[in-house]
Amino acid sequence: xxxxxxxxxxxxxxxxxxxxxxxxxxxxxxxxxxxxxxxxxxxxxxxxxxxxxxxxxxxxxxxxxxxxxxxxxxxxxxxxxxxxxxxxxxxxxxxxxxxxxxxxxxxxxxxxxxxxxxxxxxxxxxxxxxxxxxxxxxxxxxxxxxxxxxxxxxxxxxxxxxxxxxxxxxxxxxxxxxxxxxxxxxxxxxxxxxxxxxxxxxxxxxxxxxxxxxxxxxxxxxxxxxxxxxxxxxxxxxxxxxxxxxxxxxxxxxxxxxxxxxxxxxxxxxxxxxxxxxxxxxxxxxxxxxxxxxxxxxx
Length: 299
Hints:
By secondary structure, the protein is mostly helical. The protein is built from 14 helices and no strands.
């Protein structure tokens, strides 16, 4: 298998996108009882506890000063700044408008990968990205939202900042993946994330009432164990097999999976136009990842 095509890498990305899509439902449910920073802090804390066992094995790495800078940059991009911007954005704008901004991330990532990582941005990737982005925007426009939108302009700007952080995270993770395992990168993210969100959690704890029910606790535990560990773990692993510019295309699958999960869990129905938009997104991902020459080699 070459880095241009990796079946296991693609499968890891698909599962990661499915898990991340489920986080929207989990986060929405958890925030009914608990503030956003409390949810994120507890999520990072639970995930950190899961990695305590592996700390000894992480000490085997030979950390250079340059690597430490990139590791801190990785965690700063995501989960730190990413969740700060996105949690606030979703309080100011609608989920459908935020979804439109989210569709810009693969384009930002592809351009950044071409500049910083010197990855080749082919016409196939650009064409597939355009189709997938069109489908993602169409899908977002068709969706309905239960979130209030007191300041959509500011909310959409904050979501754009979150997408820039997400692109920066992907580029940095791709650079570090040559030396560090997906397990280590996921662990260092949650360790630094737990430290970063501690003061925000304390502020929220002393300035607002917090009542953690069993239901909200289970959702937070799901976010910490499954979404953070499995989601980021699979994504970081995939970056060791697939170029960052191509891996970012799979972000377009998140709104598709979100609609599917919402249908089965929240009993929401899908319109014909939403089904068509889902198909367009999948087509864009397919075009970006597979070429005619790939099929010819396997005949």
